[in-house]
Every structure is written in C-alpha cells, then in structure tokens.
Amino acid sequence: MQPPTRAPASFGNQERKHRTYVYVLVVTEVLEDWEDSVNIGRKREWFKIEEAIKVLQYHKPVQASYFETLRQGYSTNNGTPVVATTYSVSAQSSMSGIR
C-alpha cells in the first residue's frame, strides 16, 4: 500500500465527542496473510467506495455520509478519479462488524 495520497478528511461528532479521520489510499497489493491475521486472527474486507457507501448506509449511516462528502468534495486526486482508486477496509469480515 502506498502512503496516503492527500491529507486526511476530518469529521467531528459533537454529541458523541469524537472525531474520525478518513485517509485515501491506493491499494497496490492485497496479502492473504499479514501480521494481525496470523497472530490474532483479524479479518479484513476491502471495498470500492461505492460498495462501502452501500454497506455503511445500512450499518453505519453516519460513516457512510463521510464517504459521500469525500466523493462530492474531491472529484479528482492528481488527475485520477477518486472512486476508481480508493478502497475502504473493515476490521471484520462480516458486514455487522464494520466499525
């Protein structure tokens, strides 16, 4: 994975007193096994932005709105469409485990 391609977007929730930072990454390789998968059995699932929005709208609508904002506010990334090159990762493989 390459380093983030631009500064993170920041979203705050005053009610819950927390802030979420969203980074855009370019995935160049997906490994079958990595340190956390071997050591603690962690699972991850990668989504294209459009797929992530659909899944999050059902499970985490506030987080889905972050991706909608990014999609509307940043139409390009160094001349490359953001939707074509960015992915989201969940900490669990099941949809109900998305954080």
What this model shows, in words?
With 99 residues, the protein is α+β, with helices and mostly antiparallel strands. Helices cover 34% and strands 22% of the residues. It has a domain at 9-76: Nucleoside Triphosphate Pyrophosphohydrolase, CATH 3.90.79.10. The radius of gyration is 14 Å and the shape is globular.
Helix-strand layout with pairing:
Elements: E1 9-13, E2 18-22, H1 35-40, E3 45-48, H2 49-59, H3 61-73, E4 76-77, E5 80-81, H4 82-85, E6 87-90
Antiparallel strand pairs: 1-2, 3-6, 4-5
Helix pairs in contact: 2-3
**Order of strands across the main sheet:** 1-2
Q: Identify the overall geometry.
A: globular
What is the helical fraction, as a range of percent?
25-40%
Q: Specify Rg, calculated over alpha carbons.
A: 14 Å
Gap from first CA to last CA = 21 Å
Estimated share of beta-strand residues:
15-25%
The helix/strand order is EEHEHHEEHE
Low-pLDDT stretches: 75-99
Secondary structure tally: strands: 6
CATH topology name of the domain at 9-76: Nucleoside Triphosphate Pyrophosphohydrolase
CATH superfamily of the domain at 9-76: Nucleoside Triphosphate Pyrophosphohydrolase
Q: In CATH's first tier, which class of the domain at 9-76 applies?
A: Alpha Beta
Examine the secondary-structure arrangement and name the CATH architecture of the domain at 9-76.
Alpha-Beta Complex
**Main beta sheet: strand number and arrangement?**
2 strands, antiparallel
GO molecular function: bis(5'-adenosyl)-hexaphosphatase activity; bis(5'-adenosyl)-pentaphosphatase activity; diphosphoinositol-polyphosphate diphosphatase activity; endopolyphosphatase activity; metal ion binding
GO biological process, one term: adenosine 5'-(hexahydrogen pentaphosphate) catabolic process
Protein name: Nudix hydrolase domain-containing protein
Keywords: Hydrolase, Metal-binding
